[in-house]
Structure formats: C-alpha cells, structure tokens
C-alpha cells in the first residue's frame, strides 16, 4: 500500500480516501504561514497605532500650550503689573531677541474665578484680587544645571526669558502674584550673586523685601528665614512660597487656588497646592489626597494623606490611575508663626538659628555679624523633609487640588514643550533664521552664538550653541546634563559654568 492514499471500506460499500501524511503537513505549513502573516499584520498595526498615538500626544501638548483657560490668560502669558514703573525685561546675555510690548492691565479689572477640582466656580472671597494679610515669598535659588550652558551659576534660569515673551521667569512670577499682595508684601530670597540683577529686573521690589542669604541652604532655611522676619513685622501674616523659576498657565485658576489655600492656612494648616498630573512623570514628587476638610470657604481643600518621592515609571502610572494623586509643585501657604511652630517642633536647632537672625534683621550691622556666625551652621534641608512630611503624618497639612497648567522647566525636554513649532519640526529658542534643517523632527535648538546651525536627518536632538560652549545631546537624556556640568567643573572649566 502506498503512502499516496489509504482506502477503507465503509459499511455501505462506499470507498473514501483519508488525507495523506504529506497533505497533513502541507495544511499545517499553510496554517503556520497564515499565522505568521496575521502576526506581521498585527505588528504593523501596532506600530502604526504607536506612531498615531505619539502624534496625537504631540498635538494635544501643542493644543494645550496655546489653549485658553476659561476666564484666564492664554498659554504662559502673564498679565503685566498695573504700575507706572513697569519696565521690559533686561535682555539675557545669552539670547538675542526683541521684546514685544506688554499690555498693562487695569487694577479695577474684575476677577473671574476658574473651576477648581470637582466644584463649580466659587466666588473670590474679596471684592478685588488683593488678599489682606497675605505675603508672597519667592525663593530664587538654584543654578539650573540641567539647562546649562543656557543657564549659568551667575545667570540661572529664573533670570532668563525662556519663552521669548519679554519677561524672565522671576518677572513672570512677580507679575502673576502681585495682584494678591502688592509690592509692599512681596519678598524675594536670593543669593548674593543674583541680588543686583534681581533689582534691575524688578525695580518695584522694596529694598527691605529683598532678603540675601549668604549661601545656599535649600528651601527650608530660605523660606524659614523669610517667615521668621515677616512674623516679626506682622504676627498675623499668612505667607505663600512660590518658586521663581516655574511656569504657570491659567492665571485665574492659579489665583483662585491660592485664595482657597489662604483660607485654609488661617485655620492653622500648612497648605500645599496640588497640580493635576497630565502624564505619569518620574521627575516630580506626588501628594496623596486625603479626606475633604469640608470648609465652606475652601470647598476643594483636603488633608494630605502622604507625600511621595519621585517614583519610577510604573509607580507613577499607578498613581495616575487611582486619581487621588497630585504633583507636588513645592508651593506652600501657611501662617508665618505656624510654620515657625512646626520648625521648632521638628527642627529645633534650625528654628533657633533663624529666630536669632530674624531678631536683629532690621539692624544691618548686627545682621551681618549674626549671619556670619549662625548661617554656616544651619542644616541644609528641603521644606518637604523638614516639616511637610512629618506634619502630614499628624494631619496638619492640607492640599488644594488645582486645575492650572504648571511646569518647573527642569530640562531642555520640558522647555521644548513650551515653545511653538511647526508639526514635527524642532523648537527654536532664538532667531529662527539661524537654524536650517532637512528631515529633522522634534528636539530643540538654541542658536545663541549668532552663527548658522544646520541639521540633516537627526531627530529629537538638543543643540545649545553659545558663544563659548556647545552642547549636543538628546531630549531623552536631557535630565543628565548636570552630569556634564560636574565633569566640566572637575576638568577645570568652572569659568564656563
């Protein structure tokens, strides 16, 4: 009997043939080939979906950048302060660009609150934007090493106009907060290297409201010193600390969130403002929302369940999925005296040192002597670790979830997202005529040297061309630029840092 077919007899006398072994193998091979084709099609479809998703995310980011918040200001533009002394930004020594004219808003402009959290728009608690008894503190520190060589130790990022809008980051912060407190109740804490430039950029800043810290001691010492001084000037002062180098879109939503935070702070809470996360970032800390405080004056306020350090990607995604986490933007609002009470409880040595400095602050001669003696011995620690985390464990920290856009401009990748560009084209910070590209997508180019930069067939690059230094990296590795700064310092290039 051959393998070509096997004949079997059926009861009815009919004869049928069963498939041969070769035929069975052929059917199996055909099934396998079909599966391979289907798998290849699925892979192609997945690849196309990934590309479409990336394109959609980019479009959403670009759309949000130029979107208007309800009743707010467009994008990252901030209203100029209603002041006869309003001046345009001092040009950065690292950029060459023209300054657009600034529209001055009227002090009588009505306030239009924005929706916060899950609540409908609430009425602003006062007839105008000024909040009686509220003092703004702007810590202006850090070297911005992730934005080197655009940002330098002597001219850090908060002194730069990073969006070419005509105002540096610290000027935009001043503009944004001035309606709440006025120049008389706005204080800046900065290092000696930046005092003169801050005075040039903010001519309205009162002389006694610019606090010079002899050396960097992190946020707790800077904010604590301002709190100790302001508590002596006004024992009922409520202070709000807002970094000088952050960018915010949706000013009305921001001001409303601060107004709520002030109301909560008057009840003896340390209050932070939680930013609704737009993506599972691994570069920010997180705040876990606790139960509602049930305050009529601040309907969105909740207790802080806990603070979370910068997570890995998987943990960050799990945070976003729960819906009960917010980004920790480092904004704190509290009574000056209450902050000093927390500091006395959790960091008594730091508290005592700051109180000793504040006691003689108004006497410039005595101030310098006490600063020289005490400041070097103060502990260097962030406010989160010093008081916020232990106080949250005891139910003494609250959070106001907010809806405004926020970015700390922590690296060139985040800076690129803030700049306009044509679809799939690199962002350009500076003169567009100095950049010529062909088949280049994404990335950011800073033509700071004045010479022509040409790029061919490279995507998502970071190119920062300054008169004395050239940086080339990728957006994916822009967080690591600070490592180059350290290596350059070790190699003897400190004068370029």
Automatic annotation (TrEMBL):
Keywords: Coiled coil, Nucleotidyltransferase, Transferase. Residues 32-59 form a coiled coil. Pfam families: ManC_GMP_beta-helix (PF22640), NTP_transferase (PF00483). Residues 137-420 form the Nucleotidyl transferase domain. One of its GO terms (molecular function) is mannose-1-phosphate guanylyltransferase (GTP) activity. Residues 443-487 form the MannoseP isomerase/GMP-like beta-helix domain. One of its GO terms (biological process) is GDP-mannose biosynthetic process. This is Mannose-1-phosphate guanylyltransferase. It comes from Collybia nuda.
């Amino acid at each position: 009997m051959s393998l070509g077919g096997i004949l079997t007899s059926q009861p009815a006398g009919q004869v049928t043939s069963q498939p041969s072994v070769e035929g069975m193998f052929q059917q199996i091979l055909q099934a396998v080939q079909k599966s391979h084709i289907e798998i290849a099609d699925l892979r192609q479809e997945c690849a196309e979906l990934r590309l479409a998703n990336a394109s959609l995310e980019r479009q959403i980011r670009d759309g949000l950048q130029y979107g208007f918040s309800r009743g707010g200001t467009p994008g990252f533009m901030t209203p100029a302060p209603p002041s006869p002394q309003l001046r345009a930004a001092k040009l950065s020594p690292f950029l060459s660009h023209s300054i657009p004219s600034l529209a001055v808003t009227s002090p009588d402009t009505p306030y239009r609150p924005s929706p916060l959290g899950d609540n409908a728009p609430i009425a602003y608690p006062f007839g105008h934007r000024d909040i009686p008894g509220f003092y703004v503190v702007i810590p202006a520190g850090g070297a911005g090493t992730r934005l080197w060589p655009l940002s330098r130790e002597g001219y850090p990022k908060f002194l730069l106009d990073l969006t070419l809008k005509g105002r540096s980051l610290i000027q935009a912060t001043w503009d944004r907060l001035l309606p709440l407190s006025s120049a008389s109740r706005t204080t800046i804490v900065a290092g000696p290297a930046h005092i003169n430039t801050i005075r040039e950029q903010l001519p309205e800043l009162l002389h006694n409201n610019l606090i010079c810290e002899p050396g960097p001691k992190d946020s707790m010492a800077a904010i604590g010193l301002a709190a100790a001084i302001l508590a002596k000037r006004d024992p009922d002062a409520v202070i709000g600390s807002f970094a000088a180098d952050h960018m915010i879109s949706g000013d009305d939503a921001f001001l409303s969130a601060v107004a709520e935070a002030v109301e909560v702070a008057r009840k003896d809470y340390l209050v932070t403002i939680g930013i609704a996360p737009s993506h599972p970032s691994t570069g920010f800390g997180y705040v876990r929302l606790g139960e509602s405080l049930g305050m009529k004056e601040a309907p969105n306020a909740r207790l802080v369940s806990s603070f979370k350090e910068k997570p890995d990607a998987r943990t960050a995604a799990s945070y976003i999925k729960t819906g009960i986490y917010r980004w920790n933007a480092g904004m704190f609002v509290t009574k000056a005296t209450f902050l000093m009470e927390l500091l006395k409880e959790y960091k008594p040595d730091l508290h005592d040192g700051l109180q000793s400095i504040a006691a003689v602050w108004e006497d410039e001669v005595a101030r310098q002597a006490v600063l020289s003696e005490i400041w070097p011995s103060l502990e260097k620690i962030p406010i989160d670790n010093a008081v916020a985390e232990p106080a949250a464990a005891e139910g003494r920290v609250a959070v106001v979830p907010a809806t405004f856009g926020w970015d700390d401009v922590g690296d060139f990748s985040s800076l690129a997202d803030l700049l306009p560009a044509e679809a799939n084209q690199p962002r350009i910070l500076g003169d567009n005529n100095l950049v010529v590209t062909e088949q280049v997508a994404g990335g950011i180019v800073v033509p700071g040297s004045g010479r022509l930069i040409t790029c061919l067939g490279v995507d998502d690059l970071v190119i920062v061309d300054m008169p004395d230094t050239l940086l080339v990296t990728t957006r994916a590795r822009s967080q690591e630029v600070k490592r180059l700064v350290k290596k350059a310092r070790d190699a003897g290039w400190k004068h370029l840092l």
